[in-house]
Amino acid sequence: MDLLKIGGLTPLTTIDYPDHLSCVIYCQGCSWRCRYCHNPDLLDINTAANFSWKKLVSFLKKRKNLLEAVVFSGGEPLLQKNLVQAMMQIKNLGFKIGLHTAGALPKRFKQVLPLVNWVGFDVKDLSSYVDSITQVKTSGVKNWQSLKLLLKSNVTYQCRTTVHWQLIDEARLFKLTHTMKAIGVDNYCVQFSRITKMLDSNLRYSVKAKQELSKLKNELRGIMPSITFSSE
């Protein structure tokens, strides 16, 4: 039986772990159903794995002198019961460990934090609004509980929020940014959702005019000067 259920693999990337050549393991399964999700094929935990653990380990052994890090992404990697063992095996091969997560299982997140070198953490929204995005009750509590665990650790991180203008308005984004700064977040990226294919077919193409977006970015920088922006 495979250690992890792997839905896919990106063999080489320069953008998924800052300043490192890495590969990305896409863990199958997610317990949340974010309306803007653009990886619906990874949501069902019962979908057959596309990549075996044995094959992955063999691949990594051949990439020791090229890759610096292995990133666990998804789906939601924390759903994998053997995540701790998997990370330990890869760490023992000499790779740094990256993790993309929204903290859906705070207890498991706490277990893996000592093993990871960098976390890309999805802050969905202010806690009271998260459930309406994920369509799952108590997800807001778990999202923010895990965020606080991350900030208490010594792990390098980037927090990021995906913005779709049908799901959040400017006033709430300002409040979210103020809140992030107040709790000590100093590496924060706002990702503007511009993709046309999403889990919720009722969501439309989300975009603001260039001048309006420039004004918004400047106002957000006034709250948190270190904030960065990207499109997905």
CATH architecture call? Alpha-Beta Barrel
How many structural domains can be distinguished in the coordinates?
Answer: 1
Instruction: Give the overall silhouette.
Output: globular
Question: How helix-rich are the residues, as a percent range?
Answer: 25-40%
- In the CATH hierarchy, what is the superfamily? Aldolase class I
CATH class (first level) name = Alpha Beta
Series of H and E elements: EEHEHEHEHHEHEHE
Count of discrete alpha- or pi-helical segments spanning 4 or more residues: 7
Main-sheet strand order equals 1-2-3-4-5-6-7-8
- State the end-to-end CA separation: 35 Å
The total of beta strands comes to 8
Mean pLDDT: 95
- Specify Rg, calculated over alpha carbons: 18 Å
Low-confidence stretches are none
The major beta sheet can be summarized as: 8 strands, mixed
Instruction: Tell me the structural class.
Output: alpha/beta
Strand content: 15-25%
Walk me through the structure.
- The chain is α/β, with parallel strands linked by helices and 232 residues long.
- It has one domain (6-168): Alpha-Beta Barrel (TIM Barrel), CATH 3.20.20.70.
- 33% of the residues lie in helices and 20% in strands.
- Helix 4 crosses helix 5 (139-152) and helix 6 (170-182) packs parallel to helix 7.
- The longest helix has 14 residues, at 139-152.
- It is globular and about 50 Å long.
- The chain starts with 5 loop residues before the first strand and ends with a strand.
- The model has no long low-confidence stretch (mean pLDDT 95).
